Please model this.
Amino acid sequence: MASRMFEEKVGNLEKGLVALMGNLQINSSAAVTGTDGKGYTAAKTATGAYTITLSDAYVSLLSVNVTLMAATAVDLQPQVVSYDVVSAKTIVVKLLAYDAEGVVSATDPAAACELHFCVWLKNSSV
Model:
């Protein structure tokens, strides 16, 4: 469980609900050049793959939403491919592209973009 004091201004039915939001700034070489938000770090870990490492461990992940934002249109779809918020404290997102035959592969962005995310986590086992 995270040992932080959180503001509880949202009405919900879950105890210990925590929202973490942030974004990764990605340059045209596909490297993470900056982040905005608290409670995590981020790094490129493979072709088209970015790992968000949480500062704290949580009981479980309830929901995650990831959006890719770019100044020009890109044919990349972000997808959460794995997560472990209990021990490794990681969420792995891949940017996927489809070729003309419909084959999917992890792909680096060709232009600067931002990967935005919102994660809802449980900080209580009740």
Q: What stands out?
A: The first strand starts at residue 17 and ends at 26. Residues 17-122 form a domain with the Immunoglobulin-like fold (CATH 2.60.40).
